[in-house]
Amino acid sequence: MRSIKSYNVRCVHQTHYPAFTAVRPNRNFARSHSLRNAAPASVLESDRSVRAPPSKSEIITGEASNNITDYIYEKIGVNLHHQPNHPIGIIKQAIYDYFEASSPGTFSKLDDLYPVVTTTANFDEMLVPPDHVSRSPNDTYYVSSDKVLRCHTSAHQAETLRKGLNAFLVTGDVYRRDSIDATHYPVFHQMEGVRVFSETEWSASGLDATEFAARDLKATLEGLAKHLFGNVECRWLDTYFPFTEPSYELEIFFNGKWLEVLGCGVMQQTILDKNYKPGHRAWAFGLGLERLAMVLFDVPDIRLFWSGDERFLSQFKAGDLKARFKPYSKFPPCYKDMAFWTSPEFSENNLCELVRGIGGDLVEEVVLIDSFTSPKNNKTSNCYRITYRSMNRSLTDEEINALQDKVRADTAEKLKVQLR
Ligand code: FA5
Ligand code: MG
C-alpha cells in the first residue's frame, strides 16, 4: 500500500482492524443547563439555524425505541465548540485557520446544525448497511425509531452536498453509547471535512481520480497535523468505513499509546453521484476534536473538557496553541470490582450507561478484568473494575460505597445479571 510521508510528520503505514464497524459506548453525569449556549450562530449565512436547545420532551419521548438518559439530554446545546476560550473552541478555530491559510476561501464552515437527525441521514445516505453494528440501540441514542442523536458529523455530508457545496467543514456535538475511559465520552465533537474535485483537477496531475483524491487527502491531513503539533509521531492505518474506499485512520502517539484521532477516505462514488453531480471525485474526513485537543494541550482525561472548573478553563485562551494543561490536583482513585453471571440483557455499553447514570463524571473507567465461561452450564462470568475519581475533590468512602451499592443493585435489577 502507499505510504505518504511529508513535512516532518513521521507516518508509517500498516493494516488495521475495521473502524465504524464496532463503535464503542460511553456516558457520565448530568450537567447544568446554564452551560448551554442560548443562540448558536452559523458561519455560513444560509445555514443560520438559530435554534434553542430541544425541550426535554422532544428528546426523552417515552417511545419504546427511546434510549436517551437525562445525563445525555443535559449535554445537548452545551456546544463546547462555540466557546472561543475553551480547548474545543480553540482547536476548531486552529483547524479553520489551517484550511484558510492553505486554501483561502475554499471551505464553507457550518457549526450549528441540529444534532437530532433522521436515521436516513445518519446511516442510509452514508451507505451504512442495514445490519451494521452502529445502528444498534446498544451503540446509538434513538429519539424515536427514525430519529437519532447524530453519532457522527457524516450525517450532514449528503445534505450539504445537495446544497451544492464542493468544500466544507461541519463541526458539531455527536453522541454514542460507548465504553468509559480517559479517551471515550458519550458526547464529543467531530469536524467533518469534504472536498470535491472536478476532472480538470485530477487530469492535470496525471493521476487517476482516486489516487489524486487519496494523495490530496493525506497531504492535507498531514499538513494539519504539522500545523497543530509540529513534529509529532503519527501513523496511517488502512481501515474500513461504509462511506469511503479506500479508508484510513490517523493515530498519534500520546502518553505512551497510539491514539486514534480521525477517520477518512475517498468518498464512495454513489454518495457523490446521488447528492452532487456526476463526473466528480471527493475525499472526506471526520476528526475527533477532543482527541486532538488532548494531544495539543496535554489534557490527560476527556472528562476535563466538561468539568466547568475555572482551574481548568482559565488555562486556555482563544488563539493560544502553546498552552499546556497543568494539573491543579491529583486525587486518589478508588477501585471497585463487580463480578456477575451475564444475561441476555447485559452488554458492556448497557453497563457503562448504567454506571455513568449513577456515578456521573466521577466514573473514570469501566474495564473488564476477568471473564470465563463455565464448561458445566455454559454461563459466562464477567468481572468489571470501576474506577471512581473526581477531577476536583477528594471522595469519601461513604460516598463511593453508596454509589457502588446502587450500581450493584441496578445492574442486578435492570441488566438481570446474577451478582457473585
Ligand atoms: C467516524 O465517525 C466517521 N464518520 C469518520 C469519517 C468521516 C470517516 C468521513 C471517513 C470519512 P470513527 O467512529 O472512527 O469514524 O470516529 C472518528 C473519530 O471520532 C475518532 O477517530 C476519534 O477521534 C473520535 N471518537 C470516536 N469515538 C469517540 C468517543 N467515544 N469519545 C471521544 N472521541 C471519539
Ligand atoms: Mg474509528
From TrEMBL:
GO terms for biological process: phenylalanyl-tRNA aminoacylation. Belongs to the class-II aminoacyl-tRNA synthetase family. One of its GO terms (cellular component) is mitochondrial matrix. This is phenylalanine--tRNA ligase. Its EC number is 6.1.1.20. It comes from the Eukaryota. It catalyses: tRNA(Phe) + L-phenylalanine + ATP = L-phenylalanyl-tRNA(Phe) + AMP + diphosphate + H(+). GO terms for molecular function: ATP binding; phenylalanine-tRNA ligase activity; tRNA binding. Residues 329-420 form the FDX-ACB domain. Coiled coil: none annotated. PANTHER family: PHENYLALANINE--TRNA LIGASE, MITOCHONDRIAL (PTHR11538:SF41), PHENYLALANYL-TRNA SYNTHETASE (PTHR11538). It comes from Chlamydomonas eustigma. Keywords: Aminoacyl-tRNA synthetase, ATP-binding, Ligase, Mitochondrion, Nucleotide-binding, Protein biosynthesis, Transit peptide. Residues 91-327 form the Aminoacyl-transfer RNA synthetases class-II family profile domain. Is responsible for the charging of tRNA(Phe) with phenylalanine in mitochondrial translation. It is found in: Mitochondrion matrix. It is an enzyme of class 6 (ligase).
